[in-house]
Amino acid sequence: MTTTTRPDAPVAAPATRRPGPGGLALRQGRMEIRQFLRSRESVVFTLGFPIIMVLIFASIFDGDLGEGVSYTQYFITGMIATGLMTVSFQNLGIWIPIERDRGVLKRYRGTPMPKWVWFAGKVIMVLVTGVAMTALLLTVSVLLFDLNLPTTATAWVTFGWVSALGITACTLCGIAISSLARTARSGSAVVTPVALVLQFISGVFFVFTNLPSWMQQVAAIFPLKWMCQGLRAVFLPESFGANEPGGSFELTRVALVLGAWCVIGLVLCLTTFRWTTRRDG
Question: In the chain, at which end, N or C, are there fewer CB atoms within 10 A of the end residue's CB?
Protein backbone atom coordinates (compact mmCIF):
# COMPACT_ATOMS: atom_id res chain seq x y z
CA MET A 1 0.00 0.00 0.00
CA THR A 2 1.43 3.30 -1.05
CA THR A 3 1.31 6.29 1.28
CA THR A 4 0.77 9.62 -0.37
CA THR A 5 2.32 12.62 1.33
CA ARG A 6 0.76 15.98 0.82
CA PRO A 7 3.14 18.78 0.00
CA ASP A 8 3.61 21.35 2.69
CA ALA A 9 1.45 24.39 2.30
CA PRO A 10 3.41 27.45 1.23
CA VAL A 11 4.40 29.64 4.12
CA ALA A 12 3.17 33.18 3.76
CA ALA A 13 5.87 35.80 3.86
CA PRO A 14 5.72 37.95 6.97
CA ALA A 15 3.86 41.15 6.33
CA THR A 16 6.13 44.16 6.21
CA ARG A 17 4.92 47.25 7.94
CA ARG A 18 5.00 50.33 5.85
CA PRO A 19 6.63 53.24 7.64
CA GLY A 20 4.30 55.96 8.78
CA PRO A 21 4.69 59.63 7.94
CA GLY A 22 7.26 60.12 10.68
CA GLY A 23 9.25 57.09 9.55
CA LEU A 24 9.30 58.31 5.95
CA ALA A 25 10.56 61.71 7.04
CA LEU A 26 13.31 60.21 9.21
CA ARG A 27 14.46 57.91 6.40
CA GLN A 28 14.59 60.81 3.98
CA GLY A 29 16.42 62.87 6.59
CA ARG A 30 19.05 60.16 7.08
CA MET A 31 19.57 59.94 3.35
CA GLU A 32 19.97 63.73 3.06
CA ILE A 33 22.52 63.71 5.88
CA ARG A 34 24.52 60.90 4.22
CA GLN A 35 24.55 62.79 0.94
CA PHE A 36 25.70 65.93 2.73
CA LEU A 37 28.54 64.09 4.48
CA ARG A 38 29.73 62.59 1.19
CA SER A 39 30.37 66.08 -0.16
CA ARG A 40 33.54 66.99 1.70
CA GLU A 41 33.58 70.51 0.27
CA SER A 42 30.11 71.21 1.66
CA VAL A 43 30.98 69.75 5.06
CA VAL A 44 34.18 71.80 5.35
CA PHE A 45 32.51 75.03 4.20
CA THR A 46 29.28 74.64 6.16
CA LEU A 47 30.81 73.52 9.46
CA GLY A 48 34.23 75.12 9.14
CA PHE A 49 33.48 78.59 7.74
CA PRO A 50 32.06 80.10 10.96
CA ILE A 51 34.92 78.64 13.02
CA ILE A 52 37.56 79.93 10.60
CA MET A 53 36.02 83.40 10.64
CA VAL A 54 35.97 83.44 14.44
CA LEU A 55 39.63 82.38 14.58
CA ILE A 56 40.63 85.13 12.13
CA PHE A 57 38.56 88.06 13.38
CA ALA A 58 38.88 87.29 17.08
CA SER A 59 42.66 87.08 16.70
CA ILE A 60 42.91 90.37 14.79
CA PHE A 61 40.37 92.58 16.55
CA ASP A 62 40.25 93.12 20.26
CA GLY A 63 38.97 95.70 22.68
CA ASP A 64 36.18 96.41 25.11
CA LEU A 65 32.81 97.57 23.81
CA GLY A 66 31.56 98.57 27.24
CA GLU A 67 29.51 96.80 29.91
CA GLY A 68 32.30 94.22 30.17
CA VAL A 69 31.68 93.01 26.60
CA SER A 70 34.66 92.35 24.35
CA TYR A 71 34.59 92.53 20.56
CA THR A 72 35.22 88.78 20.46
CA GLN A 73 32.05 88.04 22.46
CA TYR A 74 30.02 90.39 20.26
CA PHE A 75 31.43 88.88 17.07
CA ILE A 76 30.86 85.27 18.12
CA THR A 77 27.12 85.86 18.61
CA GLY A 78 26.94 87.16 15.04
CA MET A 79 28.86 84.17 13.72
CA ILE A 80 26.44 81.75 15.37
CA ALA A 81 23.62 83.47 13.48
CA THR A 82 25.70 83.42 10.29
CA GLY A 83 26.40 79.72 10.75
CA LEU A 84 22.69 78.99 11.07
CA MET A 85 22.05 80.98 7.90
CA THR A 86 24.85 79.13 6.10
CA VAL A 87 23.55 75.62 6.87
CA SER A 88 20.03 76.59 5.82
CA PHE A 89 19.63 79.52 3.42
CA GLN A 90 22.99 79.30 1.67
CA ASN A 91 23.35 75.52 1.63
CA LEU A 92 19.85 74.85 0.28
CA GLY A 93 19.94 77.77 -2.15
CA ILE A 94 23.06 76.32 -3.77
CA TRP A 95 22.35 72.58 -3.68
CA ILE A 96 18.69 72.45 -4.69
CA PRO A 97 19.44 73.92 -8.16
CA ILE A 98 22.11 71.23 -8.59
CA GLU A 99 19.60 68.50 -7.77
CA ARG A 100 17.04 70.12 -10.06
CA ASP A 101 19.52 70.40 -12.94
CA ARG A 102 20.57 66.75 -12.57
CA GLY A 103 16.94 65.60 -12.70
CA VAL A 104 16.90 64.37 -9.10
CA LEU A 105 13.85 66.45 -8.17
CA LYS A 106 12.04 65.36 -11.32
CA ARG A 107 12.55 61.71 -10.38
CA TYR A 108 11.37 62.36 -6.82
CA ARG A 109 8.18 63.91 -8.15
CA GLY A 110 7.54 60.78 -10.21
CA THR A 111 7.70 58.43 -7.21
CA PRO A 112 4.77 57.49 -4.93
CA MET A 113 6.53 59.21 -2.03
CA PRO A 114 4.55 62.22 -0.76
CA LYS A 115 6.22 65.42 -1.86
CA TRP A 116 6.30 66.81 1.67
CA VAL A 117 8.66 64.01 2.70
CA TRP A 118 11.39 65.46 0.49
CA PHE A 119 11.01 68.84 2.18
CA ALA A 120 10.99 67.19 5.61
CA GLY A 121 14.25 65.44 4.77
CA LYS A 122 15.86 68.77 3.93
CA VAL A 123 14.61 70.27 7.19
CA ILE A 124 16.02 67.37 9.23
CA MET A 125 19.38 67.69 7.48
CA VAL A 126 19.46 71.42 8.19
CA LEU A 127 18.57 70.91 11.86
CA VAL A 128 21.25 68.25 12.40
CA THR A 129 23.98 70.26 10.67
CA GLY A 130 22.85 73.41 12.47
CA VAL A 131 23.16 71.74 15.88
CA ALA A 132 26.57 70.29 14.96
CA MET A 133 27.86 73.64 13.69
CA THR A 134 26.63 75.51 16.77
CA ALA A 135 28.15 72.95 19.15
CA LEU A 136 31.52 73.12 17.39
CA LEU A 137 31.50 76.91 17.31
CA LEU A 138 30.58 77.21 20.99
CA THR A 139 33.26 74.68 21.96
CA VAL A 140 35.98 76.55 20.08
CA SER A 141 34.79 79.90 21.44
CA VAL A 142 34.76 78.69 25.05
CA LEU A 143 38.15 76.96 24.86
CA LEU A 144 40.05 79.61 22.90
CA PHE A 145 38.27 82.90 23.56
CA ASP A 146 36.66 82.43 26.98
CA LEU A 147 33.11 82.91 25.73
CA ASN A 148 30.70 83.11 28.65
CA LEU A 149 27.88 80.61 28.18
CA PRO A 150 24.38 81.44 29.45
CA THR A 151 23.91 80.68 33.13
CA THR A 152 20.10 80.76 33.38
CA ALA A 153 17.38 78.53 31.99
CA THR A 154 15.62 81.58 30.55
CA ALA A 155 18.67 82.45 28.47
CA TRP A 156 18.92 78.91 27.10
CA VAL A 157 15.21 78.95 26.23
CA THR A 158 15.75 82.24 24.40
CA PHE A 159 18.70 80.69 22.59
CA GLY A 160 16.49 77.80 21.54
CA TRP A 161 13.55 79.76 20.15
CA VAL A 162 15.69 82.40 18.43
CA SER A 163 17.73 79.65 16.74
CA ALA A 164 14.61 77.65 15.83
CA LEU A 165 12.73 80.60 14.33
CA GLY A 166 15.85 81.87 12.57
CA ILE A 167 16.81 78.56 11.01
CA THR A 168 13.19 77.92 9.97
CA ALA A 169 12.93 81.30 8.24
CA CYS A 170 16.31 80.83 6.53
CA THR A 171 15.44 77.29 5.42
CA LEU A 172 12.19 78.39 3.80
CA CYS A 173 13.88 81.38 2.14
CA GLY A 174 16.70 79.13 0.92
CA ILE A 175 14.23 76.78 -0.74
CA ALA A 176 12.43 79.75 -2.28
CA ILE A 177 15.55 81.50 -3.62
CA SER A 178 16.72 78.25 -5.23
CA SER A 179 14.08 78.82 -7.92
CA LEU A 180 15.95 81.92 -9.14
CA ALA A 181 18.91 79.84 -10.32
CA ARG A 182 18.48 78.83 -13.96
CA THR A 183 21.24 76.20 -13.88
CA ALA A 184 23.23 74.24 -11.32
CA ARG A 185 26.21 76.55 -11.72
CA SER A 186 24.24 79.74 -11.11
CA GLY A 187 23.01 78.76 -7.65
CA SER A 188 26.15 79.97 -5.90
CA ALA A 189 26.17 83.19 -7.95
CA VAL A 190 22.61 83.95 -6.85
CA VAL A 191 22.87 83.06 -3.16
CA THR A 192 26.43 83.93 -2.07
CA PRO A 193 26.28 87.71 -2.77
CA VAL A 194 22.98 87.97 -0.87
CA ALA A 195 24.43 86.11 2.11
CA LEU A 196 27.61 88.22 2.17
CA VAL A 197 25.78 91.54 1.96
CA LEU A 198 23.44 90.52 4.78
CA GLN A 199 26.40 89.59 6.96
CA PHE A 200 28.06 92.97 6.46
CA ILE A 201 24.94 95.05 7.18
CA SER A 202 23.41 92.93 9.97
CA GLY A 203 25.97 93.42 12.73
CA VAL A 204 28.03 90.28 12.19
CA PHE A 205 31.47 91.72 11.38
CA PHE A 206 30.89 95.18 12.84
CA VAL A 207 29.02 96.61 15.80
CA PHE A 208 25.53 97.18 14.42
CA THR A 209 25.05 100.66 15.88
CA ASN A 210 28.31 101.82 14.25
CA LEU A 211 26.83 101.24 10.79
CA PRO A 212 25.15 104.08 8.85
CA SER A 213 21.49 104.54 9.77
CA TRP A 214 20.29 103.72 6.24
CA MET A 215 22.21 100.45 6.38
CA GLN A 216 20.62 99.62 9.73
CA GLN A 217 17.17 100.26 8.27
CA VAL A 218 17.83 97.98 5.31
CA ALA A 219 19.20 95.23 7.56
CA ALA A 220 16.12 95.45 9.79
CA ILE A 221 14.01 94.19 6.89
CA PHE A 222 15.75 90.81 6.84
CA PRO A 223 15.94 88.02 9.44
CA LEU A 224 19.71 87.86 9.98
CA LYS A 225 19.80 91.17 11.85
CA TRP A 226 17.14 89.95 14.26
CA MET A 227 18.85 86.59 14.72
CA CYS A 228 22.04 88.43 15.72
CA GLN A 229 20.13 90.70 18.08
CA GLY A 230 18.30 87.81 19.71
CA LEU A 231 21.54 85.89 20.25
CA ARG A 232 23.19 88.97 21.75
CA ALA A 233 20.42 88.90 24.35
CA VAL A 234 21.55 85.37 25.21
CA PHE A 235 25.32 85.77 25.40
CA LEU A 236 25.78 89.43 26.39
CA PRO A 237 24.78 91.17 29.64
CA GLU A 238 21.23 92.52 29.78
CA SER A 239 22.63 96.01 30.37
CA PHE A 240 24.28 95.91 26.94
CA GLY A 241 20.82 96.03 25.39
CA ALA A 242 20.83 99.79 26.00
CA ASN A 243 23.34 100.03 23.14
CA GLU A 244 20.88 98.54 20.65
CA PRO A 245 18.99 100.92 18.31
CA GLY A 246 15.75 100.33 20.21
CA GLY A 247 17.34 100.78 23.63
CA SER A 248 16.92 97.08 24.50
CA PHE A 249 17.23 93.65 22.88
CA GLU A 250 13.50 93.79 21.93
CA LEU A 251 12.97 90.05 22.12
CA THR A 252 9.24 90.39 21.43
CA ARG A 253 10.01 92.21 18.21
CA VAL A 254 12.67 89.62 17.37
CA ALA A 255 10.04 86.88 17.66
CA LEU A 256 7.49 88.79 15.58
CA VAL A 257 9.91 89.59 12.74
CA LEU A 258 11.35 86.07 12.56
CA GLY A 259 7.85 84.60 12.73
CA ALA A 260 6.74 86.89 9.91
CA TRP A 261 9.68 85.73 7.81
CA CYS A 262 8.68 82.11 8.43
CA VAL A 263 5.26 82.91 6.95
CA ILE A 264 6.78 84.89 4.05
CA GLY A 265 9.24 82.09 3.32
CA LEU A 266 6.47 79.47 3.33
CA VAL A 267 4.35 81.51 0.92
CA LEU A 268 7.34 82.00 -1.39
CA CYS A 269 8.08 78.27 -1.31
CA LEU A 270 4.52 77.35 -2.20
CA THR A 271 4.34 79.85 -5.06
CA THR A 272 7.82 79.65 -6.61
CA PHE A 273 9.31 76.18 -6.03
CA ARG A 274 9.99 74.18 -9.19
CA TRP A 275 10.66 70.43 -9.47
CA THR A 276 12.02 70.71 -13.00
CA THR A 277 14.24 73.08 -14.93
CA ARG A 278 12.76 75.60 -17.32
CA ARG A 279 13.93 73.57 -20.29
CA ASP A 280 11.95 70.57 -18.99
CA GLY A 281 8.80 72.66 -18.84
Answer: N
